[in-house]
Amino acid sequence: MRLIQEIKEQKQQVKTFLLKLVVFLILVFIIDRLGALFLKEGLYRYFGLDKSAQVLAVGHSHTVLGIDKLLMEKELGVTVAKYARSGANLRDRKVMIEQYFTLHPKSAKIVLYDVDAHLFTEGGLSRNSYQLFYPFMDMPIVKQHILAANPPWQELFLRELFHTSRYNEMLIAQSIRGWLKKWTNYKHGNVNVERLKKEIKSGLSRKITFSKESMSLFMETLDAIKKQGAKVFLVYVPTIDIMNEAEPEKFKMMINKFEQIAKTDKNVYFLNYNEPFSHQHDLFFDPVHLHGEGQRIITEKLIHDIQGMKDDL
């Protein structure tokens, strides 16, 4: 009898343990999903994906640090979405644009697309930039982009199972900034000109190359934007003249390409802010990025140019 009683007690203990385990897993699931929803909504707000906008700015860190979203909204009286990511390559940007227009078809009338002399240079930007798209992987177009990067199956499985694992430290910070409505450029200080000159002289600076595949992808992106009824502004947020002059012929070749694209397409405009701003070294935090004051100056120029072209838009 005692043995039977012990077996019954053990069964009850197992049932109690299993019940607690199930409750724990349910709580983990709920907390994970609610936490991920909170972070995702913050990212939507930060990138401007939460609502339709009249102006969409897309690019990498040049846009992040070079264009002031709030100042544009104030002066132009329109909603601006700034969907820009540090390290975003051409494929990333194409997906970002398609993602935005999937959420808000034919909403933006102007798309600001940042360009530079390395736009068609293969490599140089983050090869793991696909990881920044994990929060949006439930969208088919984004999921396809992630799979194309061929991530490890363990990495993919973890993010399918636990949605909060889709967020790294930078994405969490951006989500919080989205909730707080903070898009401020906090960079300060000035570029070290002498060090830059030494790096260029030593051959350490990034070289300008041209990839036909990248050019083709870029033109496909422009077509996708125009199909949404938007005008495209190719915005060259200035990079310091010392670096631009490291390979003068190649740099000029890239400028000519952007000018030619705009010249042959009435829906594309090229705004080159290297003149005169690339010579004003006090605007730069580093050779390719503006600090807060530099951002304000360039954004004011951009606003002025857009206002002056209203009759053509």
Q: What level of helicity do the residues show?
A: 40-55%
What's the total helix number? 13
Distance between the termini: 91 Å
How many beta-strand segments? 7
Average pLDDT rating: 93
N-to-C SSE string, H for helix and E for strand: HEHHEHEHHHHHEHHEHEEH
> How much β-strand is present in the residues?
5-15%
Structural class: alpha/beta
Q: State the domain count.
A: 1
CATH fold description = Rossmann fold
Strand order of the largest sheet: 2-1-3-4-5
| CATH architecture level-2 label | 3-Layer(aba) Sandwich
Global geometry:
elongated
Q: Give the biggest beta sheet.
A: 5 strands, parallel
CATH evolutionary superfamily: SGNH hydrolase
What Rg, in angstroms, do the CA atoms define? 24 Å
Text of the CATH class: Alpha Beta
Low-confidence stretches: none
Q: Which terms summarize this structure?
A:
313 residues; 5-stranded parallel β-sheet; two-stranded antiparallel sheet; alpha/beta; elongated; Rossmann fold; single chain; 13 helices
